[in-house]
Description:
about 15% strand, binds 2-phosphoglycolic acid, single chain, eight-stranded parallel β-barrel
Amino acid sequence: xxxxxxxxxxxxxxxxxxxxxxxxxxxxxxxxxxxxxxxxxxxxxxxxxxxxxxxxxxxxxxxxxxxxxxxxxxxxxxxxxxxxxxxxxxxxxxxxxxxxxxxxxxxxxxxxxxxxxxxxxxxxxxxxxxxxxxxxxxxxxxxxxxxxxxxxxxxxxxxxxxxxxxxxxxxxxxxxxxxxxxxxxxxxxxxxxxxxxxxxxxxxxxxxxxxxxxxxxxxxxxxxxxxxxxxxxxxxxxxxxxxxxxxx
Length: 248
Ligand code: PGA
């Protein structure tokens, strides 16, 4: 089965009610993009309105995090079931900002991925090394550990986002060779863990993907799309990135 690419927008803590205008532009521009799945992950406050607006269009709406439990005394948290109820069909889990600012461990990320699937959502599991880990030659080891600890026991409704932490929001990106090496390494790990179904899992690249470098980065073998932060806040830029997959 050929993997259908996925380009996902991670809006992080950006966006107010008026931002629906940006979503409308994305919806309008997405009509010509039939060879790629498009996902917009706004802050939780906007999910219901975005999902209503995107209904019947090719744009899917996702969350940026979820709690592992379905409900309970967890002040301020949002469950995967709540995201689903609001109209989301996917959720990002284990983003490096969650791992760093909230101390999310691989085990916690795995529990969230399981919760996402329980609720019927696609789980986009984020992994990636820090600058210090790369400089110390530990990239593969770190990524292997994160994969081992963060993934559910089967591959159903799971995508991976390889996001080197030092490339997020910095304008820095790995070389094409470095990306190829890591995506091939991740693919090999997925195949050894999930056998044949590991071949169908999408491995997105994330970290400073922009219209100017998207063709280069997304053209690398085993790169099945992108998780886009900063550049996804502007419809034109997000569409230009996804436009890499425009059918000629
Ligand atoms: P960036 O963020 O595109 O702004 O580097 C990517 C991400 O954090 O998912």
